[in-house]
Amino acid sequence: MSAENYYFKCTIRTQYEDAKGKLKYRNDQYIVQAIGPTDVEAKIATYMKGGVDDYEISSVVQTKIVDIVK
Length: 70
Prior knowledge:
- By secondary structure, the protein is α+β, with helices and mostly antiparallel strands.
- The protein has one domain.
- Helices cover 17% and strands 46% of the residues.
- The chain has one helix at residues 37-48; strands at residues 6-17, 23-34, 55-62.
- It has a three-stranded antiparallel beta sheet.
- A hairpin with a 5-residue loop joins strand 1 and strand 2 (23-34).
């Protein structure tokens, strides 16, 4: 397996306001193809640019996924 075929599960925590005006948190999971955790962070920063400004990467875990078939 080459380095560019590593897939990581990245959990991103975002804050939002519900209908009653209360602050709530939401965790979304993304699969990111990268060479390591630092690369995942860079790719997520690029992906989130222009969208959600206030987010936190709460975890990055390498998966056992070999490939994604589209």
